[in-house]
Design brief:
Strand order of the largest sheet: 2-4-1-5-6-7
CATH topology of the largest domain: Rossmann fold
Mean pLDDT: 88
Number of strands: 12
Low-confidence stretches: 1-9, 46-55
Pfam families: MMR_HSR1, YchF-GTPase_C
InterPro entries: ATPase_YchF/OLA1 (IPR004396), Beta-grasp_dom_sf (IPR012675), G_OBG (IPR031167), GTP-bd (IPR006073), P-loop_NTPase (IPR027417), TGS-like (IPR012676), TGS-like_dom_sf (IPR023192), YchF_C (IPR013029)
Strand content: 15-25%
Helix content: 25-40%
Protein name: Obg-like ATPase homolog
CATH architecture of the largest domain: 3-Layer(aba) Sandwich
Keywords: ATP-binding, Nucleotide-binding
Radius of gyration: 24 Å
Distance between the termini: 38 Å
Number of domains: 2
CATH class of the largest domain: Alpha Beta
Shape: flat
GO molecular function, one term: GTP binding
């Protein structure tokens, strides 16, 4: 038999490859960032006042990733201990024009963005004279331009410094030369940033991605970005307003990206009714959305943020615990086992696994007998790539000696 053709290697990712990544909520002052943070985060209590720069230091919280599969498994086992997957959030102070040169919170703000791994860019898309705006008038496209320009200017200065430092090192060592890829990558980054184009939205080869991760890993515009459009409750019911088309056109012209309409006004009313146990009020708030098969935007925001960070999770299930274990997309079975304990990775033997849908279809309660009879219970080795929603039991030999 002729040998199989080698599959094209996947393009490497920008940024950290880690299981504990964070999304930061970014935007101009008074667009609803802290209010959304309080809605999403468990035990989140960020100040949300009607004046610019109410938030100074970043606030951190986490929110459970909603998943019907996890709920299904918890209902079957009813264990004393349950652990969902979590998205980690950071609420970052509002940016103003000139932040890249030190205005407002300036470099402190931008360093907070550098510390997160992905960005929820929140845009105000509603008129309300009672809610202050730093520019007095509402223009979401202008606001998008402002934020993007500040991030690009910060990255431009960072790229220029890294380039100058490398070139200075070469001058000190006559026998040392910079490869052509160095110059082509740096030139392309500079051209994109000068055009107010985020680096993460451009097309790159695998070699270029590796070089960027080596040379300029701290660039803010390399981070995945999700745009959140904050609407009034009325516009959220309608599914948009006069600003939405212009916002979409701007995003498309700057590399594209995911847009999620959300109404902080609606979400706050819904959460208040749910906490009060007022089912009639909850139904009244959700009724106008049923015809469009929509509801709260919060679950979608959490799921999309988790996915944009290239995170997935697998399940472990038993009488004592049902738990989601977060891993990077593309993790092998031993790497996934290592999330539970480093010895599990070191002493990995095999992974006994079944896809959730196969378990749901063939299992008899907690028993795997039906799954095994249907041929859906698999034994996977060290090269197996864990899939989102796998149910896994790891076999290991923890008595093996360390090498």
């Amino acid at each position: 038999m002729p040998p199989k053709k080698n599959e094209e290697a996947p393009i490497p990712r920008f940024g950290r490859v880690h299981n504990n990544l964070k999304m930061g909520i970014v935007g101009l002052p008074n667009v609803g960032k802290s209010s959304l943070f309080n809605l999403l985060g468990e035990e989140a209590h960020a100040k949300a006042e009607n004046f610019p720069l109410c938030t100074i230091d970043p606030n951190e919280a986490r929110c459970a990733v909603p998943d019907e599969r996890y709920d299904f498994l918890c209902d079957i086992w009813k264990p004393p201990s349950t652990h969902p997957a979590y998205l980690h959030l950071t609420d970052i102070a509002g940016l103003i024009k000139g932040a890249s040169t030190g205005l407002g919170l300036g470099n402190a703000f931008l360093s907070h963005i550098q510390a997160v791994d992905g960005i929820f860019h929140m845009v105000r898309a509603f008129d309300n004279p009672e809610v202050l705006h730093v520019d007095d008038t509402i223009d979401p496209v202008r606001d998008l331009e402002c934020i993007t320009a500040e991030l690009c200017l910060k990255d431009l200065a960072y790229v220029a410094k890294q380039r100058a430092d490398r070139e200075a090192d070469v001058k000190k060592s006559p026998n040392m030369k910079l490869p052509p890829l160095f110059f082509s990558v740096m030139d392309k980054c500079t051209e994109l940033l000068e055009s107010n184009q985020p680096l993460g939205k451009a097309e790159w080869t695998a070699a270029e991605v590796d070089k960027i991760n080596e040379l300029i890993p701290g660039c803010i515009t390399l981070k995945p970005m999700v745009y959140l459009l904050n609407l009034t409750k009325k516009d959220y019911y309608k599914g948009g307003n006069k600003y939405c088309l212009n916002i979409k056109e701007w995003v498309d012209s700057h590399g594209g990206g995911l847009l999620i309409p959300v109404s902080v006004e609606f979400e706050e009313e819904l959460k208040s009714a749910e906490k009060a146990g007022d089912t009639a009020a909850v139904e009244a708030l959700l009724e106008p959305l049923k015809a469009k098969s929509r509801g709260s935007a919060l679950p979608k925001i959490v799921k999309c943020g988790y996915s944009e960070l290239a995170l997935i999770y697998y399940f472990t299930c038993g009488e004592k615990e049902v738990r989601c274990w977060t891993v990077q997309r593309g993790a092998t079975a031993p790497q996934a086992a290592g999330v539970i304990h480093s010895d599990f990775e070191r002493c990995f033997i095999k992974a006994e696994t079944v896809a959730f849908e196969d378990f749901k279809e063939h299992a008899d309660g907690k028993s795997m007998a039906g799954v095994k009879s249907a041929g859906k219970y698999r034994q996977e080795g060290k090269t197996y790539i864990v899939q989102h929603g796998d149910i896994i039991h790891f076999q290991h030999n923890v008595t093996a000696k360390k090498k």
